Amino acid sequence: MRSRADVVVIGGGIVGLSTAYHLAKLGADVVVLEKGYVGSGSTFRCASGIRAQFTDEANVKLMKYSVKRWKELSDELGYDVGFVQTGYLFLATTEDEADVFRRTVKLHRRLGLGTRIIDMDEAREIVPILNTEPFILGQWNPEDGKASPFKSTFAFLMRAREMGVEVHEYTPVTAILVENGEVMGVKAGDRTIKADAVLNATNAWAPLVNEMAGLDRELIPIKPFKHQLVKTEPIKPGLVNPLVSPPSWNDSYIIQDAEDGGVIGGAGVEHGPTYDVTPTYDFLREVVRWMTRIAPPLKYVHIIRQWAGFYAKTPDSNPVMGEIKYVNGLYIAAGFSGHGFMMAPGVSEAMADLIMKGRTKVPLDWEWYDPHRFERGELRTSAFQIG
Amino acid sequence: MQMRAPKGVMVLGQTDGEDPRENIIICRCNEVTQKDVEDLIDRGITDIEEIKRLLRIGMGPCQGRTCIPLVMGIIARKTGRRMEDIKVPATRVPIRPVPAGVLVGELDEE
Ligand SMILES: Cc1cc2nc3c(=O)[nH]c(=O)nc-3n(C[C@H](O)[C@H](O)[C@H](O)COP(=O)(O)OP(=O)(O)OC[C@H]3O[C@@H](n4cnc5c(N)ncnc54)[C@H](O)[C@@H]3O)c2cc1C
Ligand code: FES
């Protein structure tokens, strides 16, 4: 293991690894330290959804850019990330909700997204097994999509390694070295790595890592909440290509895995704060109820897996990104509140630029995502939480 | 449905060409061959949790009852580790697949 690096990245999820890649592209010597195996935190447990359809300008702009980057990544990295533009379809169950959708579409249009309102006939063409009866209309963006969490994580890992990045698995960081308000490096057990900059990319664990730098855990109040998914046996490809979600049905959603054909189902059942990942029966009952109402033929399909991971939530469900002003050289990109996979391409490029150059061309509104906003009592308007 | 990667882009866990090890199926649920597994190990990916996800081994309807021990055997042979030192991945619930309709009380168990 190197004993000196320009930047040490703590956390080998999609955010840590993609930032390491972008840092290496800017010529930095980078070491990534991961306490388990890469992706073992939340990344390998996510629903794989990627959407620009947010309800506020900052997230729409960042995600519009990230979608553009997702399209380029397989070619750029030389490894397939499994990105496909299969769309996101939100479904309204009431007239009030339909009005909200119409207003959202206006915002999206103004910001250059292709979102539009569709009727249930068109929705049925897009999702052949959809139950159209309960829904009034759909909010549809065909440019949203999904990617393989596994392939994309490894694509960044392999490319970063080829560019000289050291990635050490099963290596938990145990201390952050700070002298006179400057970060000096990190310790992993009895090994020390000196560094000019350290990035906390540990998402659900970020407050524990901040504490290692002498900061209060509540300074940047990220909390781990258990969220779960189920997966069915493979069904015919194309039956649920987009992510389909009626938000008023407890934030439930279904999305078909583009690779193995199983249908993934999620719902807004939340436990915590907790670091426990044991699947629960209440979730299973709830999610299956909604899945079979969204697409009734799923009744006949077997559920073969259920698992849990973390939404690393901030008080306003928006992530924190930037430098932590109390420790020079300590950066954070965490608290993704259930949508960190989709954002990783934009976030990581911007974070690498910030660390190496102090500025970026990525359309990321630093003020909006300011890690210190909670100290000032500011909250951003909540984005939808659906993966 | 395998996604088609752009030309010249490496698809991890996907091989082509002639090799007898391609006829040895390790995971029937997801049609993974011995060569797929060994290629990943040769690329330095030797952690069973990582191999499992890249190749989607042990994630099929049988929950990996047959394929996981086979993969552990290959890892042990190729890396010189002992079988006992390779951690068995956690089995996911439900232990046995259930039709969704049964869970919501709309279907009887077959
Ligand atoms: C059920 C579910 C569904 C989801 N669906 C979606 C979706 O459809 N779309 C989407 O965009 N997002 C989704 N998400 C959210 C997404 O999974 C996360 O936002 C994303 O994976 C965050 O990536 P990350 O790299 O920041 O965090 P992680 O992948 O959690 O990586 C952080 C890493 O830090 C490591 N670590 C912690 N402490 C230390 C330490 N002391 N030293 C070294 N390493 C340490 C951890 O082991 C972990 O691997 C979903 C999440 C869940 C749980
Ligand atoms: S044989 Fe591998 S999961 Fe069934």
According to CATH, the homologous superfamily of the domain at 20-88 in chain B is: BFD-like [2Fe-2S]-binding domain
Work out the radius of gyration of chain B.
16 Å
Low-confidence stretches of chain A: none
Mean pLDDT of chain B: 83
The gyration radius over C-alpha positions of chain A equals 20 Å
What is the terminal-to-terminal distance of chain A? 36 Å
CATH-derived architecture of the largest domain in chain A: 3-Layer(bba) Sandwich
CATH architecture label of the domain at 20-88 in chain B: Orthogonal Bundle
Strand proportion of chain A, as a percent range, falls in 25-35%
CATH class of the largest domain in chain A equals Alpha Beta
Order of helices and strands of chain B: EEHHHEH
Going by CATH, the homologous superfamily of the largest domain in chain A would be FAD/NAD(P)-binding domain
Q: Structural class, from secondary structure content of chain B?
A: mainly alpha
Total strand segments of chain A = 18
Largest sheet of chain B: 2 strands, antiparallel
User: How many DSSP E strands of chain B?
Assistant: 3
Shape of chain B: globular
Beta-strand portion of chain B reads 5-15%
**Unreliably modeled segments of chain B:** none
Say what oligomer this is. Answer: heterodimer
Please outline what is shown here.
The complex is a heterodimer of chains A (387) and B (110). Chain A is of the alpha/beta class and 387 residues long. Helix content of chain A is 28%, strand content 25%.
